[in-house]
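Need a sequence for this fold. Nothing fancy.
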C-alpha cells in the first residue's frame, strides 16, 4: 500500500512541489518500501529517532527534520539533516548557527511561522522572521531557504485557508522585498489532511505521513 499511496500522491503534485514522506514512528521496513517506490526525501520529528534510523538506511536519502528541536539535541540532528524545516525560535537559530560555524557545516533551514492560536507555542512571529531575513549576515552557519508552517488542526476549511494565506503572503512579501536572498524559495505547508489546499497557496514542500504510511501508534 505504501508504494501505491506514494505514486498516487505524487501524481497529484505539480512539478514545483516536492513530497516529504513523514516517516516518524514508522520503522525501517516501511521506509524501505517507500524508497522502493522512488521516494528519497523523508521527514522525521524526533532527534533520537532520526539519529537511529539514518545509519540503517541508504545514504542517498535526504532527511528533513520537522519537529521541535531543543538546543541540547543538536548533535543528534545536524550531522544528518539535509534541512531543518522547524527553526521555531531565535534562540534555536542562534544555537544551530553557532554549532554549524564550529563544525564547518552550512545547514539549510526553513523559518517556522507560528500559525493558529491553539496547541503549539512554537514558531516565530512575522516580526521575528523579518528581522532575521534583514540580518542574514549574522548567520553564516545556515542557509535560509524559506518558510514552514502548520495550519490550525481543524475541520474548518476557512481557518486553514486563512493560515495558509497568511504564510503565503509573508513568503511573497519577503521574496519581493529581499530579492537578493536567492536561496529563499521554499514554502513548506500542507499535511495529509490539508495538502490539497496548501497546493493552491504555492506549497513547494508538502509533508505527508498518515496518507502514506497509515496511522501512527503513539
Ligand atoms: C507529523 C507531521 C506531519 C505529517 O502529518 P500527517 O497528518 O501524518 O500527514 C507534517 N508536518 C509535521 C511538522 C509533522 O510533525
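Here you go.
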Amino acid at each position: 500500500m505504501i508504494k501505491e499511496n506514494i505514486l498516487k500522491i505524487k501524481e497529484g503534485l505539480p512539478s514545483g512541489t516536492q513530497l516529504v514522506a513523514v516517516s516518524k514512528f514508522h520503522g525501517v521496513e516501511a521506509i524501505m518500501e517507500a524508497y522502493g517506490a522512488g521516494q528519497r526525501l523523508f521527514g522525521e520529528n524526533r532527534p533520537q529517532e532520526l539519529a537511529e534510523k539514518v545509519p540503517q538506511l541508504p545514504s542517498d536519502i535526504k532527511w528533513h527534520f520537522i519537529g521541535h528541536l531543543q538546543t541540547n539535541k543538536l548533535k543528534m540532528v545536524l550531522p544528518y539533516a539535509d534541512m531543518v524545516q522547524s527553526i521555531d525560535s531565535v534562540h534555536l537559530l542562534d544555537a544551530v548557527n553557532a554549532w554549524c560555524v564550529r563544525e564547518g557545516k552550512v545547514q539549510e533551514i526553513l523559518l517556522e511561522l507560528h500559525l493558529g492560536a491553539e496547541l503549539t507555542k512554537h514558531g516565530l512571529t512575522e516580526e521575528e522572521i523579518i528581522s532575521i531575513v534583514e540580518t542574514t549576515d549574522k548567520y553564516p552557519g545556515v542557509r535560509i531557504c524559506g518558510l514552514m508552517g502548520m495550519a490550525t488542526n481543524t475541520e474548518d476549511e476557512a481557518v486553514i485557508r486563512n493560515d495558509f494565506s497568511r504564510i503565503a503572503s509573508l513568503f511573497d512579501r519577503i521574496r519581493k522585498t529581499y530579492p537578493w536572498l536567492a536561496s529563499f524559495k521554499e514554502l513548506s505547508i500542507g499535511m495529509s489532511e490539508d495538502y490539497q489546499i496548501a497546493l493552491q497557496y504555492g506549497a513547494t514542500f508538502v509533508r505527508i505521513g498518515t496518507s502514506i504510511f497509515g496511522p501512527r501508534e503513539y
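For context: The first helix runs from residue 2 to 11.
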